[in-house]
Task: structure prediction
Amino acid sequence: MADPNQIRITRPDDWHLHLRDGAALAAVLPHTARQFGRAIVMPNLKPPVRTVAEAADYRARILAVLPAGLGFEPLMTLYLTDNTPVTEIAKAIDSSFVKAVKLFPAGATTNSDAGVTAIEKTYAVLAEMEKLGLPLLVHGEETDPAIDIFDREAAFIERTLAPLLRRFPGLKVVMEHITTTDAADFVRSAGPQLAATVTAHHLLLNRNALFNGGLRPYHYCLPVLKDERHRQAVVAAATSGSPKFFLGTDSAPHPKSAKEAASAAGGCYTAFAALELYAQVFEQAGALDKLEAFASFNGADFYGLPRNTGQITLKKEAWTIPTSLPYLNSDPLIPLFAGETICWKMT
Ligand code: DOR
Ligand code: ZN
Result:
């Protein structure tokens, strides 16, 4: 008889992660490497990771600070710009460690100033990606300041994503960190070349969390949290068992001083307890039996990579997330749900 207070699943992967660089990288990497076999590492460093050569260097810096004994594989991405050379795509395929190209609309989020100013400028690169089978990962928000911030994801689908999929029907696309009914419906009804990642914070929180008893910078991320109707639609998609939705934490560390500021940086740090937070969502939805496919199968299958072979165990056990984690010299990292008790623990 299976123990209801314990689940064993294939080792999961994180298909959307920010690791930063230097001391920050060294501080956060062990949290992810403990839980996940692989992670798709975002390229929005300063300056961004734009070429395969830069991705190789960044990958080497990650591996250099990986604690011994943690078998973790960073999967690298290139930051798409208006000037990305078409020749980088074949180089990416040949590299075997660059697994995708990331589209940040210019100005959409942290370190996106070098992003794409007009999607037409990338058509030659996208055509090559379609031809060679390299996935495009999109931060799916319009940046037009005239559009209400809560409507930017829906606007992106209509104005940018739907036309893009019509122009490049064979291009593999991941809509990252979906937050709306619109995105869940769009991904579900599109062909198998379109999939989506879902974060733990967008599954657990709605926009009330931003204003709960005062302005809450640790709940501020991009895309911004949406209302409860949208949250429920995203939970339904993630827990549905559809292979089009998979785990991508978007864990995005910022030091305390950047979060507790007049203009707080966007990003929730969830890597410390990522899998446990997802387990909580799936349990609440009565869908713990769907967690393994979401966390460990669907992403690998979409990217055409082998599934991990090891297993991890989650136990039903209350524990408290630390109030603070070491990060930069005297500037700590405050994890999401700092000081709060959660109910699953990875052993
Ligand atoms: O909340 C976010 N933080 N969203 C992003 O798209 C970027 C990320 C970061 O790099 O801090
Ligand atoms: Zn991100």
The first strand starts at residue 6 and ends at 10. The domain at 11-311 is CATH 3.20.20.140 (TIM Barrel). The longest helix spans residues 152-167. The pocket of zinc ion (ligand 2) is lined by residues 16, 18, 42, 250, 252 (CB under 6 Å).
